[in-house]
Amino acid sequence: MIEHSELSQPVYLKLKDMILSRELMPGQKIIQEKIAKQLGVSRTPLLKALQMLEYEMLVESVPRRGMFVKLMDLREMIEIFDCRESLEGMAVNLLTERKNPAFIQKLQKVFDPFLSGDIDIHKYRKADARFHQLIVDLCGNATLKRLYFFGNIYSKVVQAGLVRTPEETLPEHLKILEAIKVGNGKLAEQELRQHINNSKKLLMAYSIERDN
Amino acid sequence: MIEHSELSQPVYLKLKDMILSRELMPGQKIIQEKIAKQLGVSRTPLLKALQMLEYEMLVESVPRRGMFVKLMDLREMIEIFDCRESLEGMAVNLLTERKNPAFIQKLQKVFDPFLSGDIDIHKYRKADARFHQLIVDLCGNATLKRLYFFGNIYSKVVQAGLVRTPEETLPEHLKILEAIKVGNGKLAEQELRQHINNSKKLLMAYSIERDN
DNA sequence: AAATTGAATTTTGTATTCAAAATAATCTCG
DNA sequence: CGAGATTATTTTGAATACAAAATTCAATTT
Q1: What is the pLDDT of residues B17-65, one digit of tens each?
Q2: B6 touches chain A (CB under 8 A)
Q3: Of A47, A85, A143, which is closest to B76 when you measure between CB atoms?
Q4: Residue among B178, B184, B88, B84 nearest B136 (CA)
């Protein structure tokens, strides 16, 4: 049983977690009554939560048929990378032009634990996600932040399990950071686009290989 | 009374129209029972429609208080312009690289009626909207199209009544078209970004003037 | 045994009901 | 009179109820 001033909120979070953790498998039908009972709520708040997830493209609704956990294909993954490149590119540019030392420090701190010694891969992944999220959060454009969130742009890529090694990405992250520090927005954008593009290339290479 | 296989759909369209046409004024509270009765449905499909509009930022929800027609301020307008620049810029680049003659012809046709003789301003506005929408629709990235739509990026700017004259924008549109035709994606993107930026500048100038 | 039809069951979409919270209206007391 | 407390009304959020559509499953026919 969940307690909250609005039930749909914790239901939404729980469902999202169930989807991203693959407790609910892609393609699987979500039987409302069943999940509602499982979470100890009625269908009303569940439906609201499902609709939120539909907007985030984690769930697909077929009228009169039901709601399904969304499957993601290569085409969509590539689309997401392109959107990330566009939106994050703009964000890092805006962020850099703001020249706010507190923001820069926040970003700096994210990768500090990985500058020397062994890298805990789990912690590094979290830091990676945080870095990209921070760029979007701190850029000052709430509409962009919203679009980025509703496209669920980061979590879907992570869900797909596509991640490069820290050895490869850390220098890229630091290059972006450096460009931000010196206040060169255009360069920061360029480095970030390159960074995302490298991941995209890996994805494409991987999928071509798999298809053979 | 509305007929449809899913009531929330026509209710959504009707509500959206009511908001964009200012039948429901910005800031106004939406009393669910009242609107539901007015449209001849129960609160259930109305609520679903309202939630869709909340995601499109046309409606704002305050828990336990109610839903309100969203007010837009200058900051948000500028944010929207920046997002348009980023997303449409990417779209036109993708579109251009596809080098599809059918697509180019579709875009060409939009402004054909305005190349000679007097310009019907109402028709031109529609063509303008269609041009930008086509760029997004034809770029081939469904995720981008969705983000663009859910940001409700075009209709909100139109709602705000900010439009430049055809004399000013037609040459800009044609420059974009030309770059697409010659297959220069980077140039097309640059021209489109400039085009959107010009509108943004007008908006900022207008609002500064009004504040004095 | 495979395909097709038709009843039984499940599941969805919508309406209705109900309790809790918020707002409006009324009353009391300085 | 006017500010604050109290009651009444409205409105929301959630649960339940119900009809229509979709699915399942078994019976029948080929």
Answers
A1: 999 999 999 999 999 999 999 999 999 999 999 999 999 999 999 999 9
A2: yes
A3: A143
A4: B88
